């Protein structure tokens, strides 16, 4: 049973995030800008959340305009702050970086605030995904019942503040979510789906139950040691590759928000690369391990059987 104070905890955590974000954005707006480069991606409209994106056109913005877009982006937590045509289920992404010339006090404040905001964001995500004890499909309506228009994906996304680095380059990452399962795991999932007695458009409740029964029979007929896996493509993601020459180290980071680089007096601004348009047809994989041959047996679940 959901605990009584859960929604109040969510409300308090959101208030903390919003208050700290105000202060965080104010410091960014008041700091001396050395360089800023952000990449505006096309919006995802309602109903297009699952549409494949073989190409993505990037529009670059520089300087104060880039800083202004970044500050709006960090504080963008509600649907009311965006066009009505935009999807509520897809977070807005704004890859890029801001390089700020800061005092030691400003650097310390930005670092501490980002840590505090990120902890609150993680706690809010835990409240929704764990403490609420709701199945994944019920979380979206639950959050919107209590916080109309809240963009949970934007709330979850963490901020990255870096001390001076040498260079930042941008690119795209193509990934799959892979989860290995036994036939028994899948049987449990399908039986849960059956006992929920729900319909799935465009089927009636009876047709849907029949479909799940067929899937159950298919899995039950497999030997118990059959190797199954869910292999689901994730939408292509913008990434940043950060290089620190003193450590001879490159770090790859997801980059849905502009990174913030804090440079103290006398430190040089990192070299900022650009993000080119994404084109699936021209992707070159640096290292693509040979996948084991597998057969797709339940397409709606992205469930594969290893041959």
What can you tell me about this protein's structure?
This protein has 307 residues and is of the alpha+beta class. Helix content is 36%, strand content 26%. The protein is built from seven helices and 13 strands. It has helices spanning 6-30, 63-74, 104-131, 136-146, 152-156, 183-195, 205-220, and strands at 32-40, 55-56, 59-62, 96-101, 161-163, 167-181, 228-244, 249-254, 259-263, 271-272, 278-279, 294-298, 303-306. The strands form three sheets. Strands 6, 7, 8, 10, 12 and 13 form a six-stranded mixed sheet that branches. A five-stranded mixed sheet has the order 3-1-4-9-5, with helices on one face. Strands 2-11 form a two-stranded antiparallel sheet. A hairpin with a 4-residue loop joins β7 (228-244) and β8. α1 packs antiparallel against α2, α1 (6-30) runs antiparallel to α3 and α6 packs antiparallel against α7 (205-220). It is globular, with a radius of gyration of 23 Å. The two termini are 42 Å apart. The mean pLDDT is 87.
Number of strands: 13
Q: What's the Cα radius of gyration?
A: 23 Å
End-to-end distance: 42 Å
Which geometry do the CA atoms define? globular
Largest sheet: 6 strands, mixed
Report the average pLDDT across residues.
Answer: 87
Which stretches are low in confidence, meaning pLDDT under 50 for 5 or more residues running? none
Strand residue percentage: 25-35%
Share of residues in helices: 25-40%
Secondary-structure element order, N to C: HEEEHEHHHEEHHEEEEEEE
Class per helix and strand makeup: alpha+beta
Q: How many distinct helices?
A: 7
């Amino acid at each position: 049973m959901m605990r009584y104070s859960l929604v109040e905890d969510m409300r308090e955590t959101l208030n903390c995030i919003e208050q700290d974000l105000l202060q965080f954005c104010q410091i960014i707006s008041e700091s001396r800008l050395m360089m800023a480069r952000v990449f505006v991606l096309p919006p995802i409209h309602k109903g297009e959340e699952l549409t494949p994106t073989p190409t993505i056109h990037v529009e670059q913005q520089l300087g104060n305009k880039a800083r202004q877009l970044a500050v709006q982006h960090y504080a963008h937590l509600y649907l009311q702050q965006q066009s009505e045509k935009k999807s509520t289920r897809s977070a807005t992404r704004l890859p890029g970086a801001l390089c700020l010339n800061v005092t030691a006090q400003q650097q310390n404040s930005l670092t501490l605030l980002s840590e505090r905001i990120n902890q609150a964001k993680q706690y809010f995500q835990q409240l929704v995904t764990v403490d609420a004890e709701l199945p994944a499909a019920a979380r979206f309506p639950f959050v919107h019942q209590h916080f109309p228009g809240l963009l949970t994906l934007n709330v979850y996304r963490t901020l990255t503040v870096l001390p001076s680095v040498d260079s930042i380059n941008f690119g795209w990452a193509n990934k799959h979510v892979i989860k290995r399962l036994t036939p028994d795991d899948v049987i449990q999932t399908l039986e849960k789906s059956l006992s929920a007695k729900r319909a799935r458009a465009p089927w009636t409740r009876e047709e849907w139950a029949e479909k799940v029964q067929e899937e159950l029979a298919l899995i039950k007929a497999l030997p118990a040691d059959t190797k199954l896996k869910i292999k689901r493509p994730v939408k292509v993601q913008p990434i940043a590759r950060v290089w620190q020459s003193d450590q001879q180290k490159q770090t790859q980071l997801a980059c849905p928000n502009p990174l913030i680089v804090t440079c103290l007096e006398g430190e040089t601004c990192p070299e900022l690369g650009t993000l080119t348009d994404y084109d699936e047809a021209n992707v070159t994989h640096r290292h693509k391990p040979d996948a084991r041959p597998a057969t797709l047996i339940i397409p709606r679940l992205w469930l594969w059987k290893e041959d």
